[in-house]
Design a protein that fits this description.
two-stranded antiparallel ribbon; Bm6066; 5-stranded parallel sheet; mainly alpha; Ankyrin_rpt-contain_sf; Rossmann fold; 986 residues; Serine Threonine Protein Phosphatase 5, Tetratricopeptide repeat; 9 strands
Amino acid sequence: MMERNESRKYLQHWLNNSNRPLLIVGAAYSGKTFFAKSLENEPQLAAIHYCTKIDPESLETGTILRNIAWQLVNRFPNLVIPKLASVTFLAHQNSALHHFLIKPLQSLPIPKVLSFILIDGIQKEIIPLINQLTKSLPSWLKLVITSRTLHDNELKNFDRFVVLNIDENPNELIDFIREKLPQIDSDCVFECCQGSWFYISQYSRALNANLLTLPSTSRSSNDDDLFTLSSHRCNFIPNGVSALLAAIECELPTHLNLYLQLITASRRPPTRQRLIAAIVLTANRPTNLIESDLHECEPILECTDPLILNGAWRERFISDNECEEAHSGELHYLDRIRILREFGADMIELKCPVFDYMTTDLLVKAGAVILNQRQQKHDFVFACTSGDWTSVMNLLDAVSIDELRSGLIAASSRGHADICKLILQADPHAANYVDSQQWNALRSAACNNHDNVVDLLIQNGVEVDECGEGGRTALRAAAWSGHECVVQRLLKCNANVDKQDAEGRTALMAAAFMDHANIVSILLADGASPNIMDNYGSTALHLALSSGAQTSDHNETVAMLIKGGANLNLEDMNGRNCLHIAAYHGDQNLPTIIDFIQNIDAQDHNGRTSLMLASSQGHLIVCQQLIEHGADTDAIDEFGRTALIIAAISGFLDVCEMLVSFGADEGHKDNDGAVALHYAVAHSDLQLCKSLITSTTVQATDTRGVHPLLIAGQRSSVPIVEELLKVGAPIHLQSHDGLSPLRAAAISRNEKVLKYLLEYLRKNGEKLELDELDLDGVPLIHTLLVLRDRSMVTMLLEYGASATVRDSHGRSCAHIVAQLNDLKLAAIVRKYGAEFEARDEDGRTPLMFAVWSSNYKICHYMLETIGVAPNVADYQGATALNIAANNGQRDIVMLLLRFGAEPSICDNLGRCASDVAQLAGHDHIRQILKSANGSADSSGFGSLPSSPIQQSNSKFFLQQRNIGSLKSSNNSHGITTKCNTLKISH
């Protein structure tokens, strides 16, 4: 999935610098949900909820809060969420939100890292909930929402929000176009898509499913019209979402409207089986035909079972199924009360108002009854959570065992000892109940620092180490939360201080990770072992050092663990001891830790030493401390890399300079044969490169023959290239794949570097060698033509590249532009002497190439502007007219005839153009040719003309690769281009 990097940067800046919530707005189908989904793996995303009209429940308060809450529980395992009934969220939204989510969040220790909740696609129904969340969430948990573009009066509801208009960055949309539709001009698609990301995605899916074809390059307008590129370039791309859907609809089954109407009419997305059953009843079609139709419709479905329509498809057909709400002001619904009664409104009992008060009032008038307070069944768990002793007392005898036990956990988490006592009197066994989230009453009370409830539960005989399958005890919960009194109370009751949970974690580990030094001290004094390992091989000290904290509490915690007997040489599952962990996180306590380490150069399972780990994160002071204590600067890991190479990979200048000053070897090669400079030149940091440049390193080649100047040509700036050349970098040295610095810069479109290299060679009187072929027999100018880079092509021609240079198949620049159908490139190469009558090794002219590719524009240009001969035959005797007849290209046949193409010319097998059309099954072309020829068919027999595709084993590759590189291919269309890719594995 493509990342919206600019939007992500804005989001990160907002998260770190603003205390206000964030509203992301954009037009319909502008990629808001796409962006939201791209954030799902963001480390700081705590919870995400998608609001969608296809699932009405997703807009209900209870659904939203429950979904967010369960995600938060997974992120913060010590979060105690009460099980509230759905009616509670409807009847007591403010109070339910407070007790269900806000109070539990406030009970947590403040995390060390900021987090955020994202709600995508908000609707007006949930605006009150959004405003409540905005006011209530703790400062460390921020809120992000997305919405379609809002009017000024609607924005007033979000005056507290920072607003990000996602439509204001067109570069992200252009990148998406290039990723999804690389075969079509991005500017043209950008113009036609009208800002819709759905358009791009649906267009791509339609092309892949062959519902649509690539935009035709044949001209459909009157031949006498004057052709201009700008006015016709987008003629064959659907203009806007509606046009795209209409074009796709023509290729879908005739019963499409019925299928889509049935899908959109369903309250929830229907399963495939249910939809088929409905279609059988509605349309009386056989099941096998319906299955076939649904398979053809898959490119417009977001999900195939249940069936969910992609974006605009649902809105396109939903209008046919719209119905007015009963309280609508439409005149023809004035008898709405009678209609509602006929449908049974008088049999409805409402526990609370529904939807809105207008609807509720209308239902009551139609006979519905709102139960009064005494008739309603209260939410027992909510009463326990909110401390409503009276309601609990009244409901105690009527609730189920499960409600009773859930109520005890809820009351324990809020410290309502009187309610806990009532429940324990009613069901003493409730105290030992463990719910699906591994909470029992004791752990719930301990985690939330309610020592009075802890005492009550223990007095009632609760087992102090009671826990569920997760193994998380009350002691571990209290230690994680930092509640000293509760920890001491549990220890006095003989809680097992070293009991491990399902992950092997102890209470000491929990306290150490949270830097609760006072709790660590208490646990150690009670006999806790500091050297127990969890399932990942980590000890309490490993976990403390991995928190990345730089506080006095953290330093005190580390000191306490060391004093308490922690073994700093124990290794985790990655082979890392405490020094490795401290070095990686840049811990302030590293000098103290070093004193306890047996081998400062100990390597983990990847061969990394502490110095390497510190250099990988740019921790300058830590690196210096390690070296001063004797760390080996030239130790190598399993990839043959030193600390210097690792620092260069990440671009840490200060670390590289420091390592070099301490004698690190700049010329050391890793297992790929690369020195640190190979990696440094990729960062465009001149000072970093200067610190690593020597007469040896500039000449160093890796196992593929790549040297630093080659990489710099692709990725770096002119000053770095200049610095490399000053020290003697080999400007003519090619890689094993035949890639030179000049070619690398050109293919990477690094125009400034290319110009500098050309001037450098000219200034030094050296041969430019711009027409050399690569290992696949392709000259550089051909490669740049395929990339459609006009400025680079022009520059190369200005510096002396030949416009007549041939590839290994005898094709010239004119052949290339003919197949590309690019008039501007054609004009450029013509200006510099390209031969448009040139023949390739099979005798084909550029005109023939253009005809084979159905490129009307370039055919017209060559015939009218350049005046190429239309009757030239290739070595099989086929003319351009024969080829057009074979392909059934009416427009091009008419064009060739207009410019003097002779229909009677026969190929080597004696076939004229009309014979070829007949063999290919194009009767309409045959009739045109007979009329033009005025004679009967000839009697030629044999096969049809063969295309460049059949004659050549190489491919005309029109796709740009990363870092400007093209791979060679030997199995398809016409012209081969190739260059080499420089890769460095970090």
